[in-house]
Amino acid sequence: MTAQGTAAGGFGVPEPFGARLRRAMDTRGPLCVGIDPHASLLHAWGLADDVAGLERFSRTVVAALADRVAVLKPQSAFYERFGSRGVAVLERTVTEAREAGALVVMDAKRGDIGSTMDAYAAAYLDPGSPLFSDALTVSPYLGFGALAPAAEAAAAGGAGLFVLALTSNPEGREVQRAVGEGGSTVAATVLRRLAERNAGAEPLGSFGAVVGATLGDLSAFDLAVNGPLLAPGIGAQGATPADLPAVFGDAVGNVVPSVSRGVLRHGPDETGLRNSAAAFADAVRAAVT
């Protein structure tokens, strides 16, 4: 079964995201490449900052990488800024990337309550949606329990979630490292709740955390959530694959390092994109094994 396998045991039951991700990381290398078509990068590629440039950029990245990297992560905001035409490009990007074999993590960082969270879940985690992705980034800061509709939709559709836990932006500390009533930090509580969601899952749970690769020693936090750790910060933000063992400790085998500009700056040449992604994947594999 390919990374995009949707059935386990032949009974139409969706294969969990965690199992598909583990297989993709083991066969293609543990790497996520972000698709971030911001204006400066479009210009660097010689493209106009318009819908045509957006589509050319996205299709080039997909053509170069979707058949070989484990994960592609489009940033929804860079498509939404063009309105409905940009969202249409995002839909095609997701579909074409998944058809080529990559797992798609939609970087939308959604977080809300009740029926609104239900609607976000339907948009990104319902297999019948044109924006259906293998996983979605979500924010837990309306309460972890408010993410229940997304978690339930993900489980039903064989998808996953990446929940913001320890992000690399300096502003995140004031919320994520704040101490709650029980004496635990907010981030520690998020990690604990993810571990509970993933209890008993094999070979890997489908509910992961976003943990910045630039944060240094995180030994104060229990990162053993039995799920993937999406780790932005490799490349242009300053972290290197060699830093991963020191940051993630015993959980390093479940890390999905995410690089964007470090790879994308080699476009629009498809060979340059492929070679850069392959070099990062090889460096990560060497560092974590």
TrEMBL record:
Transmembrane segments: none annotated. Belongs to the OMP decarboxylase family. Type 2 subfamily. GO terms for molecular function: orotidine-5'-phosphate decarboxylase activity. This is Orotidine 5'-phosphate decarboxylase. It comes from Streptomyces qinglanensis. Its EC number is 4.1.1.23. It catalyses: orotidine 5'-phosphate + H(+) = UMP + CO2. Keywords: Decarboxylase, Lyase, Pyrimidine biosynthesis. Pathway: Pyrimidine metabolism; UMP biosynthesis via de novo pathway; UMP from orotate: step 2/2. The active site is at 109 (proton donor). InterPro entries: Aldolase_TIM, OMPdecase_AS, OMPdecase_type-2, OMPdeCOase_dom, RibuloseP-bd_barrel.
